[in-house]
Amino acid sequence: MESNAAIELSKHILITFGTLLAVGSFAGLIASKFKVPDVVVFLLAGLLVGPSMLGWVDIKADSAINQLILIFGSCYILFDGGASLRLKVLKEVWISIVVLATVGVLISAAITGVAAYAILGVPLIVALLLGSAIASTDPATLVPVFKQVRIKDRVAQTVMSESAFNDAMGAIVTFTVLGIAMGQGTFSAGDALLDLLKQSGLGIVTGGVLGYLAALLIGHEKYDFLAEYSPVVTLMAVIGAYMGADGMHSSGFMAVFVFGIVLGNKDAFGFKMEEREQEKMEEYVLTTALIMRMFIFILLGSQVNFALMGKYLLPGLAVVAIFMLVARPVSVFVCTLPDRRTKWSLKEMLFMCWTRETGVIPGALAGMLVGMKAPGADIIASVTFIAILTTILIQATTTKWLAGKLGLLLEDQPA
């Protein structure tokens, strides 16, 4: 009987995966036809095929298979995003990235928390917990958007890099506030800063070492004996970077992102692959990243709890409006204006204020709070999903339009 049960479970998983791929392929065609970011259509497709509507896909948020898809999918999308960045640009904007990913998260969390306290009428500590959970932006959403909408390099790379780096800060702030809310501790700015430095530092070192090693094995003139297997090397190293950093209690997502940066800039370290092998690896990464986007955002849409969202819809939308239109713009202006070295223009800052989508990571944090029975977890989960749907459906679809209006599209730049 156990064997039969295992076989039936395997068949169910295969059917679900086949459904995800079929729905994702059709959604991708629609996105291409209407020239909108595919993550938006994947999310809408997930709403349609989820248990609340057609019921074709029903994978629970707390299941092992869902966590596997979220973790590996986010890792691979982060790797793809890191590989597309250029060190020359990052050297110019690194101060803004660091300040946005730390101070910016705190500002967003504080303003959103105060808004939630006033509008939802929940205890202040619960309101701050909500603000912390949704404060970080989502690289799994932003990286694909900037892959499809070609924006001025320093703006796109700042937004993508900051979204990868601020996840660690978002998680640290969330669990610090959770500890206070559950009576397990008090806030310590020093401890929080040390924790952030540890998570960030170890993540950067792990990703950098594995990125250099991978570049050596596929691009060194003498030791490139794995050049033919470069796609497999990248796959293995993405898993290794995440698990290695996570095993040291540091940011696995940051490790994967840095790994992508190093491998994507391997020419700067003296490594160069043959053109044929480079093309093969790029095609593999492109296809794999597309599949991961399909899986992540269709699943995210399918898991939206309409009943829970409906309960707090209007006050939740009010909180999210302040979050989008006040909290994140304030954090961008406060964190980028002092960076005299970069000399951000008003148009660039306005664009960065708008392109700050919420997605997989805040959704995962909200799910964890529900599982841990945190105070106000249902309200937090409800508002988080409202934020995810609102920011992705509104901000992601208007990214190209806004960039065009502000003159930041690459095709608008002089040759």
Attribute tags:
single chain; 415 residues; mainly alpha; Na+/H+ antiporter like fold; 17 helices; 76% helix; globular
- As a percent range, the share of strand residues is under 5%
End-to-end span in angstroms? 68 Å
Major sheet: size, sense and barrel closure?
A: none
pLDDT < 50 stretches: none
**Count of helical segments?**
17
- The CATH class: Mainly Alpha
**Number of DSSP-assigned strands:** 0
- The CATH architecture comes to Up-down Bundle
Question: What's the overall average pLDDT, rounded?
Answer: 85
Oligomer state of the chains in this structure: single chain
Number of domains: 1
Structure summary:
Helices cover 76% and strands 0% of the residues. It is an all-alpha fold and 415 residues long.
How does this model look, in words?
The chain is an all-alpha fold and 415 residues long. It has a single domain, classed as Up-down Bundle (Na+/H+ antiporter like fold), CATH 1.20.1530. Helices cover 76% and strands 0% of the residues. It has helices spanning 2-34, 38-49, 64-83, 87-120, 124-133, 139-148, 153-181, 189-219, 230-247, 252-264, 275-302, 306-311, 313-336, 346-354, 360-371, 377-396, 399-405. Helix 1 (2-34) packs across helix 11 (275-302), helix 3 (64-83) crosses helix 11 (275-302) and helix 4 packs across helix 7. The longest helix is centred in the first third of the chain and has 34 residues, at 87-120. The radius of gyration is 21 Å and the shape is globular. The relative contact order is 0.16.
